[in-house]
Design a protein that fits this description.
The complex is a heteropentamer of chains A (about 325), B (about 500), C (about 300), D (about 325) and E (about 325).
Chain C lengths: L12 H9 L3 H18 L1 H4 L21 E2 L5 E2 L10 H37 L1 H15 L3 H12 L3 H28 L2 H8 L4 H37 L11 H9 L8 H28 L6
Antiparallel strand pairs in C: 1-2
Helix pairs in contact in C: 2-4, 2-11, 4-5, 4-7, 4-9, 4-10, 4-11, 5-7, 6-7, 7-9, 8-9, 9-10, 9-11, 10-11
Chain D lengths: L3 E14 L2 E14 L3 E6 L5 H8 L7 E10 L2 E2 L5 H7 L4 E4 L3 H4 L6 H12 L4 H14 L5 H4 L9 H13 L5 E5 L7 H18 L2 E6 L2 H7 L2 E6 L2 E7 H6 L4 H8 L48 E4 L2 E3 L11
Parallel strand pairs in D: 3-8, 3-9, 6-7, 7-8
Antiparallel strand pairs in D: 1-2, 1-4, 4-5, 9-10, 10-12, 11-12
Helix pairs in contact in D: 4-5, 5-7, 7-8
Chain E lengths: L3 E12 L5 H12 L9 E12 L3 E6 L5 H9 L6 E6 L2 E2 L5 H10 E4 L13 H11 L8 H11 L16 H13 L5 E5 L7 H18 L2 E5 L3 H7 L2 E6 L2 E7 H6 L4 H9 L48 E4 L2 E3 L6
Parallel strand pairs in E: 3-8, 3-9, 6-7, 7-8
Antiparallel strand pairs in E: 1-2, 1-4, 4-5, 9-10, 10-12, 11-12
Classes of the chains: A mainly alpha (about 325), B alpha+beta (about 500), C mainly alpha (about 300), D alpha/beta (about 325), E alpha/beta (about 325).
The complex binds adenosine-5'-triphosphate (ATP) (2 copies) and magnesium ion (2 copies).
One adenosine-5'-triphosphate (ATP) binds next to strand 2 and helix 2 of chain E.
């Protein structure tokens, strides 16, 4: 366990370091932030002043070293655009994205697993087949397109749900959350569903595949030979075994759910960090990009950690030491 | 009831800071206008009007005197000349500012407080544009303490202005909440609360209006313009804006990187330096077609920097006519009977329909024999390349924040000169000494009438020489729920105070 | 002894595979659709009434015409036109070509690179394996959109560059899958047998190990093609896709997207349908492949 | 014969696959008495497992019991409802599988897997069920059963897992245990431990036991009666001595002959030529005839079951009469 | 006595994880915290000496996980030993040039347990059998088909089937293909690792007969690994008994079965089910087979041994000759 933790930490360190180098180089390759940031009315002198103010006059390696020095003290730099510490900015936006992503993942579990179980147990039934067919649609339709359809149908035509934005929030643990208010929940419904469509399909299919693979296993037969009820066989014996791949995949997908919330957030004007990052890329706000990516890497590491721990909880055969 | 007292509106561009002096970014300035006031304001058609200064005049050729209004800041502190001095002192000292407002205050070389309601500002030379420059500078209260930090504006601590609304909360990327300032010096705002929301995605913004989540949106997408104008629940407000969409051509190099002969061979000269070629390229463009088909009538064809009605607008300078026959003839005369090949660059996420416009231009140029390849890039990388002068023909837009032609003339068409601060964004490196002289002269002409004539002459000269190829002037369009009215503004700002229920 | 025949018919694994694949009518239908789509894409230049990428053939005066309209030159736009006056039918046919090229191209290249690395990692082990797998981790923790943006900014837009970007985004998944499969197969006795017969290492790797690791790779290959096509569409939506003058299906949808509210549905709808049909068909094939190629579900 | 625990009559279990009907069990009859051990032997694919699953009615589609009766204490199991059947499974009839690595659910603790079995058939408290489980573990010779209850299957060796499976089978002291090759995957010394355990239990509890195996040597020492299966049918059955020492069916004879210890060291073994036939659409007639030295035209018809001696059943037109060397 | 073909001298094989920085860091850390690191090394084979002579059949018996396959692999040259040396006709394989090592490797071939996993499912039979000889240039041009036919025929398969794939054969037939594959490179030595364990009794007899026929025909030497004492007894000249990585007893076959010396061998023999037995009373050696990660000290068998003495837990008994050609490792013998 300790070895595993150490290994994880060392790897994470390398990943983060590599990431920052790439981003520093990458942002430089894309373009010049000053060109984007500075007012077109500014003259050449003002331009030169701004370059110095942002520290962009120094050679890149020096900028990088300065950044590293700051990072060691927990300061990932200030946004060029917002003039706020990049970390704080991300921190402000993170809850919105997180609650969206978590809800999306929850939705995928709540909808995906039961449907997948059904489709796995009754593969030839109409519902089972439709679930499978529907799941293909789940990842065939581009997210942005589905999002707009949702808005058109549920907000514009039917008027059931608010079209965009985050709605009212309430504080919990010092952070503003939407899911605590009715209005917030109403605002969250469409984007969360939109974001989770792909995941629902994925979980559904994984569950189905898991059921199909586990049903013929000896231990299932043995459980039946013990005279257990079908419900217990499915919900305890089979379920616990298929949860393992599902948890792994959900863990991995949680990361890309966050990364892909960019699209959903821009369609639904959801003020999360996905939108922040895409805006930051658009204006080459390097500190925010770097900080965001470091956060993402950190998040991935934490998620992987949780997945691994869950893994050990679910599958007693797995010992952390033996997984790379 | 209470609901009616709340106005939700949605703008397209994100506000990045509440600090009115942090970044010369129009979305920020648009928001600032709700909370803060400048000394001199712009009216809807971009003419200067009194704001915190009730009047101003030149005392001598280098000194301006402003008479200040008697009013209070949101925190009750009275507005005085001290606050003006405080503000002017602060502007150049904002930490980490990527785009400082000092470009609007740097002409001021001395401040003299005559009495609490009179202040004199001195400039180093004759500077007739000072009142116009000051339209961009919001006045702060010195009661917020010396060296106010940008963060403290975002939290609300420093967001104390004299404007029609008081700051309540800032949720970055989402909304800014405002309350009415009941002590406002101007007309009383119609709304007790304002939700100033940010919805960048065009379709989402329109949907939000249609779904009734917001009552007004700005930057109505061109594709929805026609539909919304027919929608019974919605009314529109529009005005021809100050933003010109135009094309740059490479005026400088002898061999331009993206120009080739008609069969792809290298050329040892740059056809774009030939006036006839530039004229041909301009006549080849069917501006009305672009306006009707691409912009869906939310623009007007243009042949100069400013829309009609602006100061220094040239009344008889119409948009160049669509004349492919003449274009072909000019090309032949210039020695390109078979045309040539060119790549037209542009952004795809910056201006309204930017990528579509250059495709349309590409079609049109191809039709006169200039085989055009069109390339559109995200602004973030495009602007860097363009500023490094890597392209031969490329699209840009220019919003004349000052509402008069000296601004684009200086920035776009004056010869690039870092020392004098001229030609700052002259990315075609157009250079015409005669034009430079005219501009120089206009800038030190204090008399408004004489200056206007000079600017009109300069504009005509630049356009005749095809320094840029103007395409169209965008219309600024707001859509709102029936029952509301808005005074459309040429400067694209959305001001809640100008949104009023129809009686 | 051997005079008792084991199985009557001579049957290659391929035959058996085809046979099992054909058991699902839906999958066969999917395959037929994929084949038709591939045909349409390959011969788009012959079939399409217009070359939608040739600016000289477009006229913005024909822009946004509804389906069935006739242009000034007598060309009928069966599916209408987009804002540039591009015949949607032609645009879709050519767009299919781009989408499939980008999708299949990136999936195949990424597949080759990823599997080679994954197999090597599994077979060679040690430091090389650690190195490759850390690279995979790094790649997988990097948001695809940012990678794509950086690459596209570096190289400029273009079908090739989008393909390259997708390759860089995708290869890691293959490497992971290939390594996983190879770790299992490597322990099989036939690999030991090959080693015992002193066959050269590369031969063991590519002739014995690789073919047996193909099933999972083929399965994720089909899924990745579909993924790549949608990812390309998303990149286009974010303004990072293929050049606007050579629109893929995704870009057509993204372009038409803004017209959805104004009732000019065809600009986005028909390419959407084409994309949907393509991806559904590919996934149907992929689903059946997964079942057929999965040894655990083998009957 | 009032002690008859199970009597299977003319059982047929068929698999209706796409490729055709697999007659996995065809006209199988046998019986087991209280406290007795029946060894069911045969080569791979001869239908032993399917017979076992048919008895506890766990044949999954496309398989189906196509005929015959399974009388358990006189009740025909083939006619019971699924619910009634569930009440018997694990309760009156238990089954032990071949591969101890696969039969226990890898992700559930031993106590969970045992307690759920107890509570499926007896209305007892959790603690009570746990106590019973612990006793059962003790009975099969697992040291410190209290701690072992908390373990997961993977923490056990193969032999211990098989003992856990046996303990689970014993929880309700069933009348019949079907053991499907439970020691095949185990080492010799461990196999002996399990066999010793089973012998003791059968003797003490009076359970009837069906011991399925392909290893004649194992049943030789364990079983009272032997039934030899070939291609879905029982070709010869009887008490151990009769079948092993004086086999009448050429297949049984060949099978016993090919066991190395029945041959002189270092000599060629006696072998049955050819291979086991596929059960898919097996033609009529004796299934063994292609490999049989005595086969003739008569064998193209199904041989009937005869009883050459009391308690000895045979399906052959050409029974061998001399005893094995 | 004929010359030795294979000699193992003090051969050991350990499997362990390689230590990276993180692992070393933890070791140091847990060491500092007073919790010494638990060694996870698998000692699969532990200082084994074994000589196999030309033309012999040596049976290797032992329970699951005792290192039989590992030993077989080292003999077949698939796996290098961690310690000690493997000698082929007197020369250490490790010192050979790559060329010579390859030639030796081909001389020792292996027949595997699982007839399903040991054939590449994607190759035709002809390719499976003929690939190696062709790659190694053992068949003249144009004679490929004839060569493969001959190999298949020798293994008792109809050459007409050579264009088929493995899945189209039964287990017994597959095992014949595996044998043909091994014979195709003209080996002198066969390692049969549980080569008949997966086969039905009636098929097993066929394959065992084939092995005996081939021995006579090709003058092969065998290392015959099996846990089935009956099979080993029938086939072997000499029998080697392994327990947990070590050889515990070794003797001529008759000798072992008549006068087993080591308590483990005795237990093994008494537990083997015999078809002659009737209503046998099974006893069972007490205890479980220990794991090669966590081996008992001293004699590996002592926790289960009925004759265990205090010394057995401390000192590992050496393998010593107790009768001519009969070696045993037990403290009872001293
Ligand atoms: N689900 C199924 N579908 C089709 N055929 C089946 C199925 N299950 C079993 N069979 C067939 O039934 C026959 C008998 O199988 P069974 O498992 O009873 O054999 P067995 O005697 O137990 O063999 P082994 O010793 O290998 O366990 C085999 O030919 C097998 O192919
Ligand atoms: N590649 C490997 N990595 C780690 N441990 C291994 C490896 N190969 C074998 N072992 C371990 O070495 C020990 C001996 O294995 P080996 O396969 O030689 O045993 P065996 O006697 O052949 O057993 P069986 O009868 O089960 O085949 C076992 O504990 C096994 O787990
Ligand atoms: Mg069986
Ligand atoms: Mg082995």
């Amino acid at each position: 366990m300790t070895t595993w933790l150490f290994r994880r930490l060392i790897q994470a360190l390398f990943v983060i370091l590599a990431m920052t180098v790439i981003v520093f180089l990458g942002v430089n390759v894309i373009g010049d932030p000053v060109e984007i940031l500075i007012s077109p009315d500014a003259d050449q002198a003002e331009r030169a002043r701004a370059i110095i103010a942002l520290g962009l006059d120094k050679p890149l390696w020096q900028q990088y070293l300065i950044f590293l020095q700051g990072a060691l003290h927990g300061d990932l730099g200030r946004s060029f655009v917002f003039n706020e510490p990049a970390l704080r900015l991300i921190g402000q936006r993170m809850p919105a994205t997180m609650e969206l992503a978590v809800t999306a993942v929850l939705l995928s579990i709540v909808l995906g697993i039961p449907l997948g179980l059904y489709a796995g147990l009754y593969p030839d039934s109409i519902l089972g087949r439709s679930a499978m067919a529907g799941s293909i649609l789940g990842f065939s339709l581009p997210t942005f397109w589905v999002g707009l359809m949702f808005i058109m149908v549920f907000a514009v035509e039917l008027g059931w749900l608010p079209s965009t934005g985050r709605g009212a929030t309430a504080a919990f643990l010092g952070v503003q959350w939407s899911f605590l208010t009715r209005d917030g929940l109403a605002h969250m419904a469409m984007p969360a569903l939109n974001l989770s469509l792909g995941n629902i399909a994925l979980v559904l299919r994984l569950t189905r595949a898991g059921v199909r693979e586990n049903l013929p296993m000896d231990y299932v037969r043995f459980a039946r030979a013990k005279g257990l009820s079908p419900a217990r066989v499915v919900f305890v014996h089979v379920m616990k075994n298929i949860l393992i791949p599902i948890v792994t995949v959900i863990g991995l997908e949680f990361g890309s759910t966050i990364a892909f919330s960019v699209v959903t957030e821009s369609v639904f004007a959801w003020p999360g960090m996905g939108k922040l990052i895409i805006d930051s890329i658009n204006v080459l706000d390097r500190p925010v990009i770097v900080a965001y990516l470091m956060m993402i890497v950190f998040l991935f590491i934490v998620i992987n950690l949780i997945v691994d721990l869950l893994y050990t909880a679910l599958d007693p055969r797995v010992r952390l030491e033996s997984r790379q | 009831p209470a609901m009616a007292q709340t106005l939700s509106l949605a703008v397209s561009a994100p506000v990045t800071s509440i600090d009115p002096h942090y970044h010369t970014l129009s979305p920020n300035q648009s928001l600032d206008a709700q909370i803060f006031d400048p000394l001199v304001d712009m009216d809807a058609t971009a003419h200067p009007v009194p704001a915190l200064a009730e009047s101003w005049k030149l005392v001598d050729s280098q000194t301006w005197e402003f008479h200040l209004r008697t009013t209070n800041f949101h925190n009750g502190a009275p507005f005085t000349a001290e606050d003006v001095a405080f503000t002017l002192d602060r502007v150049p000292r904002v930490l980490n500012s990527p785009g400082s407002f000092s470009i609007y205050t740097k002409a001021v070389t001395g401040v003299e407080i005559v009495d609490p309601h009179t202040i004199r500002l001195r400039t180093s030379g004759v500077y007739p544009l000072l009142p116009i420059d000051l339209t961009q500078v919001s006045m702060l209260s010195r009661s917020i303490g010396a060296n106010p930090l940008t963060e403290d504006f975002n939290s609300g601590k420093n967001a104390i202005g004299t404007g029609p609304f008081k700051f309540v909360a800032y949720k970055p990327g989402d909304r800014i909440e405002l309350d009415r300032n009941d002590a406002y010096w101007g007309a009383k705002p119609a709304w007790e609360h304002v939700n100033y929301r940010i919805i960048s995605n065009d379709a989402a913004r329109t949907s939000a209006l249609l779904a009734g989540d917001v009552s007004l949106i700005d930057a109505v997408p061109t594709s929805d313009y026609v539909k919304l104008s027919k929608e019974p629940k919605v009314t529109l407000a529009q005005i021809v804006g100050l933003r010109l969409i135009f094309l740059w051509l490479d005026h400088q190099r002898d061999v331009s990187p993206f120009v080739e002969g008609p069969n792809g061979e290298k050329l040892d000269h740059n056809p774009l330096k030939d006036l006839r070629v530039r004229q041909a390229l301009s006549f080849a463009i069917n501006r009305p077609a672009i306006v009707s088909q691409v912009m869906e009538d939310s623009a007007i064809p243009s042949g100069q920097f400013l829309p009609k009605g602006s100061y220094s607008y040239v009344p008889d300078l119409a948009a160049p006519p669509y004349d492919p026959a003449r274009a072909r003839k000019l090309l032949a005369e210039a020695g390109y009977p078979k045309g040539f090949r060119i790549t037209l660059h542009g952004s795809n996420d910056r201006y309204v329909n930017d990528a579509k416009i250059i495709q349309a231009v590409g079609q049109m140029w191809t039709r006169i024999g200039v085989q055009t390849k069109v390339e559109a890039l995200p602004w973030a990388s495009y602007v860097g390349h363009a500023s490094k002068l890597e392209y031969s023909a490329f699209q840009f837009g220019w919003g004349t924040s000052t509402g008069e032609a000296s601004n684009p003339l200086r920035a776009l068409t004056a010869t690039y000169d870092a020392a004098k601060g001229l030609g700052t964004v002259n990315r075609g490196r157009y250079s015409n000494p005669a034009l430079d002289q005219l501009i120089d002269k206009a800038l030190v002409t204090a008399d408004d009438g004489a200056r206007e004539t000079l600017l009109q002459q300069a504009t005509r000269m630049a356009m005749d020489d095809v320094a840029i190829i103007p395409l169209h002037q965008q219309k600024n369009i707001w859509a709102m729920r029936k029952g509301l009215s808005y005074t459309a503004r040429a400067d694209e700002q959305t001001r809640a105070i100008d949104i009023r229920p129809v009686k | 002894m051997s005079d008792v025949a084991a199985v009557v018919r001579e049957e290659t694994p391929f035959h058996r595979f085809v046979h099992e694949f054909a058991e699902s009518k839906l999958a066969v239908a999917g395959f037929v659709v994929v084949a038709i789509i591939a045909f349409l894409a390959v011969f788009a230049s012959v079939i399409a009434p217009q070359n939608p990428y040739d600016l000289a053939q477009l006229d913005i005066m024909d822009g946004r015409l509804p389906p069935g309209s006739v242009s000034a030159d007598g060309l009928t736009f069966w599916l209408g036109t987009d804002d540039q006056g591009r015949d949607m039918l032609s645009g879709i046919l050519y767009g299919l070509r781009i989408s499939l090229t980008v999708g299949a191209g990136s999936a195949i290249i990424a597949g080759i690179i990823g599997s080679a690395l994954g197999l090597t990692a599994a077979y060679v082990g040690g430091k090389i394996e650690t190195g490759i797998m850390r690279l995979v981790d790094l790649q997988l923790s990097f948001p695809a959109i940012l990678v794509a943006l950086m690459i596209l900014a570096f190289l400029g837009k273009g079908v090739l560059n989008v393909t390259l970007a997708l390759v860089i985004v995708e290869w890691a998944r293959y490497a992971r899958t290939a390594r996983g499969a190879a770790l299992v197969e490597r322990r099989r006795e036939y690999i030991e047998a090959a080693e015992c017969l002193a066959l050269p290492r590369w031969r063991v790797l590519f002739r014995h190990l690789l073919p047996n690791c193909m099933p999972p790779l083929i399965v994720i290959g089909t899924i990745q093609i579909a993924r790549a096509i949608t990812l390309e569409a998303t990149l286009s939506f974010l303004g990072l896709g293929v050049p606007i003058t050579e629109p893929s299906l995704g870009l057509l949808i993204a372009n038409g997207y803004q017209y959805m509210l104004s009732g000019k549905y065809w600009i986005s709808f028909y390419p959407g349908i084409a994309l949907l049909v393509t991806i559904v068909a590919i996934n149907l094939v992929g689903d059946q492949l997964r079942d057929v190629l999965n040894p655990r579900l083998r009957r | 014969m009032s002690d008859m625990t199970l009597e299977v009559r003319n059982l047929r279990t068929h698999f209706f696959t796409r490729a055709g009907v697999v007659r996995a069990v065809e006209d199988v009859s046998f019986s087991v008495q209280r406290g007795r051990v029946l060894g069911l032997v045969g080569e791979s694919g001869s239908g032993k497992t399917v017979t076992g699953f048919s008895i506890i009615r766990l044949v999954d589609p496309p398989g189906r019991i196509a005929g015959g009766s399974i009388l358990f204490h006189g009740r025909d199991l083939a006619k019971l409802s699924e619910r009634e059947m569930r009440g018997l499974r694990g309760n009156r009839i238990a089954m032990i599988f071949q591969d101890p690595m696969m039969t226990l659910n890898p992700v559930l603790r031993i106590d969970t897997q045992m307690i759920e079995t107890v509570r499926a058939h007896a209305k007892v408290s959790h603690a009570e069920a746990r106590a019973r489980s612990r006793d059962a573990l003790g009975m099969v010779g697992i040291p410190s059963p209290d701690e072992r209850l908390e373990s997961y299957p993977h923490q056990f060796s193969g032999g211990m897992r098989q003992r856990v499976a046996i303990a689970i089978a014993l929880l309700h002291r069933p009348d019949l245990i079907i053991a499907d090759e439970p020691t095949t995957a185990l080492d010799v010394t461990i196999q002996a431990q399990i066999l010793a355990e089973v012998q003791k239990l059968a003797a003490n509890v009076g359970t009837a036991l069906i011991w399925i195996t392909h290893d004649l040597s194992v049943v030789a020492g364990l079983a009272d009666e032997i039934a030899v299966m070939y291609a879905g049918r029982i070709v010869e059955a009887g008490d151990v001595a009769t079948v092993l020492d004086r086999p009448s069916h050429p297949y049984t004879h060949g099978l016993i002959g090919s066991v190395p210890s029945r041959n002189k060291r270092g000599t060629r073994l006696r072998q049955i030529p050819g291979m086991t036939p596929s059960l898919l659409d097996l033609p009529e007639g004796c299934a063994f005839r292609a490999r049989c030295a005595y086969a003739d035209a008569a064998c193209e018809k199904d041989p009937p079951t005869t009883e050459p001696a009391r308690g000895h059943a045979l399906r052959c037109f050409h029974p061998l009469l001399e005893p094995v060397a | 006595m004929s010359a030795p073909v294979i000699e193992l001298r003090g051969v050991s094989k350990r499997f362990g994880k390689s230590f990276d920085i993180a692992a070393r860091l933890t070791h140091r850390l847990s060491g500092a915290l007073g919790r010494p690191y638990k060694d996870q090394t698998v000692h699969a084979v532990d200082t084994v000496d074994l000589t196999i002579r030309k033309g012999e059949v040596v049976g290797l018996v032992g329970e699951s996980g005792c290192g039989k396959s590992t030993l077989g692999r080292m003999v077949a040259g698939i796996m290098p030993p961690s310690d000690g040396s493997v000698l082929w006709q007197g020369t250490d394989i490790a010192t050979l040039s790559p060329e010579a090592a390859r030639a030796v490797k081909l001389k020792v071939q292996m027949i595997f347990q699982d007839p399903y996993a040991s054939l590449n499912p994607r190759l035709r039979v002809a390719e499976i059998v003929g690939e190696a000889p062709r790659v190694h240039g053992m068949i003249p041009r144009g004679t490929f088909d004839a060569y493969v036919d001959a190999q298949l025929h020798r293994a008792g398969l109809d050459p007409a089937y050579k264009r088929r794939y493995p899945h189209q054969f039964s287990g017994g037939q597959r095992q014949r293909i595996g044998i043909a594959r091994a014979l195709a490179v003209q080996p002198e030595f066969l390692v049969c690792d549980e080569a008949v364990a997966a086969l039905d009794v009636s098929i097993q007899a066929q394959i065992l007969n084939l092995f005996m026929d081939l021995r006579a025909e090709l003058d092969l030497t065998y290392l015959f690994i099996s846990h089935d004492l009956g099979v080993v007894e029938h086939l072997s000249d000499r029998v080697v008994i392994m327990y947990l990585g070590r050889i515990v007893e070794e003797a001529r076959a008759e000798e072992i079965f008549a006068h087993a010396n080591h308590p483990y061998t005795q237990a093994l023999l008494s537990e083997v089910p015999r078809i002659e037995a009737r209503k046998k009373h099974f006893v069972g050696v007490k205890g479980e087979i220990p794991s090669p990660i966590d081996r008992p000290t001293g004699c590996h068998f002592h926790p289960r041994c009925p004759h265990a003495m205090p010394r057995c837990a401390i000192e590992a008994p050496a393998l010593r000759e107790i009768a001519p050609g009969h070696r045993s490792a037990c403290h009872l013998n001293t």
